[in-house]
Amino acid sequence: MTAKTPSEKDRVVIFDTTLRDGEQCPGATMTHEEKLEVAELLDEMGVDIIEAGFPIASEGDFAAVHEIAKRTKKAVVCGLARAGFKDIDRAGEAIKPAKRSRIHTFLSTSPVHMKWKLQLEPQQVYEMVIASVTRARAYTDDVEWSSEDGTRTEHDFLCHCVEAAIKAGATTINIPDTVGYSVPEEYFALIKMVRERVPNSDQARFSVHCHDDLGMAVANSLAGVRAGARQIECTINGIGERAGNAALEEVVMAMRVRNDVMPFWTGIDAKMLTRASKLVAAVTSFPVQYNKAIVGRNAFAHESGIHQDGMLKHTQTYEIMVPEDVGVKQTSLVMGKHSGRHAFVHKLEELGYRLAGNQLEDAFVRFKALADRKKHVYDEDIEALVDEEIATAQDHIKLVSLSVIAGTRGPQRATMKLDIDGKSAIAECEGNGPVDAVFNCVKAMVPHDAVLELYQVHAVTEGTDAQAEVSVRLSELGRAVTAKGADPDTLVASAKAYLAALNKLVARRLRGQPEERRLHSTDVG
Which of 63, 97, 100, 109 has the greatest CB tally within 10 Å of its CB? Predict the structure, then answer.
């Protein structure tokens, strides 16, 4: 049978807002360089529109959107703006270098938002819709308008505003489920109603943007597509405010696997989904839950004897998609202390890493040291080891050695040696527990005002010899950074995580933010 040629009318445009809505997730702030890295991967994997940030929110957001606009090769680069002219002008300036650009402007339309948030009458909101879209069109002919809290907006008023936005020049209309309140049948009916009642609806593409407060973001998004929407707004791993957004990997694979009931298609290279998931998890320090659909660690794992028996006889007994289709290797190469360099390189390639020269050699030496200490070295162990190797390559502050005295007979004491921009520093400090003593050593050698907001430990793999993975969040001058450290010794992992977060703060200062006190190597205590 000849495969059916995909129709353009069934193409669903993927609008990725990982760098905007995703980064608004508490604690998920990314550095400038990390945003550029994520944007490059999104462009490579076939995302149609990258919402790169909220330019008026900060100088950092503006700089990131502006730089992404310069670098992006294929995708449309979008900046978010409220209805105010200052927001729109700032967004227009930020996206100016892009080959293809968009301004996404929004305004609340629900009774509760208009009364309590905006404190405006409906007629005033209606006039602002027209004015904001008109202003945005002065910068680009690709303008998206969103009715914030659209699912709780009165239908007559919603249709009135949508019609006005299209007349003013909006080419995309987004009806978001801002608070994750809707259910699929209801959302389907809403999109269908607006498209049928608005006389000029055929002049714009309709978009869905669903939050996951009730766990239905993906289901609602797909319901909107079935009702005629042809753009889905989503994020890698579903990160975002509160319970998050519709997950890009889930909507893409749902349409691909169940194309019989959802005959739609996207331009996403699904083989890059796992790679994208791991990158976003790494830069945000937001781990992906093990049972997460498509990209979770257990998504293609089978432990039950019944399942294993079925899988050995035929993979389709318990798998509805091929792991390779989303960038997951079906079989795993078992690594241990007897593995050689060639096997190590092969495993790295399986996991999506390309190391060379000193970086590869250093990673291999650390792997052999880890293999001598652990009975089993899992994929997650290698990922944690290599991610740390990559992350610390350009660090200004590096851990050289650490010894800790702990137990019931206090006080707990740590002795630490650091390499700070090529200079050695040593400190010995006491603390209220061994971790506190370790962190006090860092503070003694690298004085700073950062506040520890989060300290979290979990095992990378199972067993008493498992690597500990520590997450640390430091806050300074209203900005927070998060980082991880991994090591079989929990205290060493703690030191690595704290120093990784501190290095992020140092890197940000050295980029020259004037309002912040710079940290130099001369600050060594």
Answer: 109
Q: What is the pTM of this model?
A: 0.70
Q: Give the DSSP H/E element, type plus range, for residue 250.
A: helix 248-257
3-class DSSP string for 71-94? HCCCCEEEEEECCCHHHHHHHHHH
Model confidence at 333, pLDDT cuts 50, 70, 90, reads very low
| Helix (H), strand (E) counts: the chain | 16, 14
Q: Which of 75, 417, 87 is nearest to 268 (CA)?
A: 75
Q: Return the higher-pLDDT residue of 358 and 132.
A: 132
Specify the DSSP class assigned to residue 423. E
For residues 170 and 192, what is the distance between their CA atoms, to the nearest angstrom?
19
Match 């200004």 to its residue by tokens. Answer: 396
Instruction: Find out whether 389 and 370 touch, Cβ atoms under 8 Å.
Output: no
As a three-state string, the secondary structure of 329-390 is CCCCCCECCCCCHHHHHHHHHHCCCCCCHHHHHHHHHHHHHHHHHCCCECHHHHHHHHHHHH
Alpha helices (H) along 120-173:
122-137, 155-168
Residue 518 tokens read as 């710079």
Tokens of 12: 């669903």
Q: Do the beta carbons of residue 210 and residue 177 sit within 8 Å?
A: yes
Q: Would you call 410 exposed, middle or buried from its count of C-beta atoms within 10 A (0-12, 13-18, 19+)?
A: middle
Q: Of 186-190, 395-399, 480-484, which gets the smallest average pLDDT?
A: 480-484
Q: What is the per-residue pLDDT for 145?
A: 98
